[in-house]
Here is the input.
Amino acid sequence: MKVSGIWKLFILCTLYIVFTSCGNSKFPGFTPTKNGLYYKLQDIGEGKRKAKPDDYITAQITIKSDKDSVLFDTRKIGLDGSVTFILPAPQFEKDYYEGFQLLSQGDSATFITDAYTLFTKKNHDKIPKGMNIASIVKVETRVLKIQTKEEHEQEMLDEQKKLEQGEFDEKKILEKFLADSNITASAIANGMYYFQIRKGKGYSPDSGRVALLNYRGYFLNGRSFDSNYETQPFEYVIGAEEQLIKGLEIGVRRMHEGEKAKFIIPSHLAFGSSGSSTGIIPPFTTVIYEVELLKVQ
Here is the structure.
């Protein structure tokens, strides 16, 4: 039977409507995988190889509800806001790990799954309040690094050697500083040094009390990088986390009201192998703090 031009046009239009409506029926702009996960590539990186199961993936991941409430965010973890994990094969339908196999290093994407899959099946956890098993969950990710097991292990060995060399160099610099300065100080707390400039006669801080401090931080060459002398005394709640570097926490607890002391603090009790977040203090840098304990209240 011969099909007229009008019928051909009708058939093509019908097929177009069917295919486009199917493609946009659920999440416009997203593509379904064979396991029912939906994904959308947001940005393309320079990586050439797609991730595969058993690769080590370093990625930034943010999980959001259908109302864009943040349920989990790796940006609150670590310096670059990422996590590293071994990519497993997808264990079930809508497992968002499947989406990583579609990405290369530098790519960013959004995956769509549901609350039942993510919380109940994947994490064996309760579904958050305000959501049900069918609630949409969005997983936004940027892949920073894709490595084989061998590449990851070699990187860890290189990092360990770098750490050991940094610690060795720092120790030698500190030993020379102490020898050249003729400083007589007591060694405390795994390599930290403490000596009094002025004795105190008042209370010693206890957990839960508030200590009023004046302080000045400087490098071994005498250059200052931090001070509160030009402002008001610093209020430190003894025992509160992340108010002071570890070395100062240890040091202040040894002081008495009215005391002035100097603490020489190695990097593992100060700003560590990465340095300060501002970049002012380099990695593996011993620092000195002069501290006045003005009042304990």
Notes: The domain at 26-147 is CATH 3.10.50.40 (Chitinase A; domain 3). The chain has two domains: 26-147, 160-296. The first helix runs from residue 5 to 23.
